[in-house]
Structure to design on (331 residues):
């Protein structure tokens, strides 16, 4: 018996869903990101308002003072939907695991100068509580903000911060033992150097406006913390003192912030471009919380920088201001 195989081209009846076609115009092929994001927000057929907050609908844009004509104006330049996000993070996790294996297999943690090791344990390990706070805040933004264009990347951000907390814990266990986690928790709860940052994180937990919370956490705190701790103190200062192994162990945080700030800047730019009222509101949120964050980070930075702290902190704030100005919010 002879079997002939042939290729048959089937012309699709349409290239995307109707609600996507209405947004991108015509019957055009849509990207996976567009299909997994646009108009995914539930808007109708709610049975009743939430009994715990009957002033609002379950999903209600009025929960924030920020006003948008279309909440899908927010777009993620990384084009992250679930599949793309998990593949990107899996690749980064492979790199992080290779770095941990490299440091552990060659005993590089034991070769760290004692002063660098102590600085890392005092400065870095308590930051896992900050990362956990960011996990909570981004989950809250995802729950109470409106539109999948902004809520979807926030839940990815929440899971990233959970991973960062776990990487910090692993660094602590690699450089010390289980006691370093208890000591870091005690410092977070009792040490004067951490009380300003702890108050900032705890105050953020009670912010009701989800977009203000977005600015407080992702724009301001992360915008000052990551350049200060990971890019300046660890990658520059401690590496020059023999702490290159620590920079390898925290490479995920450095790479993650460089990637994530593109999305944060795009969000700020979109919100500010919507109206003069939004721009003024964003400037007020950023300015007020920036000053609090800078003051809270100052004693933390002093653990590693000593007399250079004020100079470095001023430089980090200046760079942050320039970044926000470029995003459309002059400070």
């Amino acid at each position: 018996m002879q079997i002939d195989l042939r290729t048959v081209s089937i012309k699709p009846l349409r290239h995307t869903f109707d609600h996507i076609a209405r947004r991108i115009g015509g019957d055009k092929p849509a990207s996976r990101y567009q299909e997994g994001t646009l108009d995914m927000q539930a808007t109708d057929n709610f049975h009743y308002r939430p009994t715990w907050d009957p002033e609002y609908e379950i999903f209600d844009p009025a929960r924030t003072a920020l006003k948008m004509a279309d909440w899908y104006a927010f777009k993620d330049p990384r084009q992250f939907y679930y599949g793309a996000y998990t593949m990107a993070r899996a690749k980064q996790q492979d790199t992080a695991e290779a770095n941990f294996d490299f440091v552990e297999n060659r005993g590089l943690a034991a070769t760290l100068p004692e002063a660098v090791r102590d600085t890392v344990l005092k400065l870095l390990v308590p930051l896992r509580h900050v990362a956990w706070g960011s996990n909570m805040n981004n989950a809250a933004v995802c729950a109470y903000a409106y539109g999948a264009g902004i809520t979807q990347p926030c839940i990815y951000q929440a899971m990233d911060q959970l991973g960062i907390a776990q990487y910090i814990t692993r660094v602590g266990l690699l450089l010390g033992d289980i006691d370093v986690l208890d000591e870091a928790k005690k410092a977070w709860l009792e040490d004067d150097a951490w009380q300003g940052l702890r108050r900032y994180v705890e105050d953020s937990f009670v912010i009701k406006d989800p977009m203000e919370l977005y600015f407080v956490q992702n724009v301001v705190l992360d915008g000052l913390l990551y350049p200060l701790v990971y890019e300046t103190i660890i990658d520059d200062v401690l590496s020059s003192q023999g702490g290159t192994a620590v920079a390898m162990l925290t490479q995920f945080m450095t790479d993650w912030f460089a990637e994530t700030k593109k999305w944060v800047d795009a969000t700020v730019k979109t919100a500010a471009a919507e109206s003069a009222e939004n721009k003024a509101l964003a400037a007020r949120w950023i300015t007020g919380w920036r000053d609090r964050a800078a003051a809270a980070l100052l004693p933390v930075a002093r653990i590693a920088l000593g007399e250079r702290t004020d100079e470095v902190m001023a430089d980090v704030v200046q760079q942050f201001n320039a970044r926000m100005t470029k995003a459309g919010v002059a400070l």
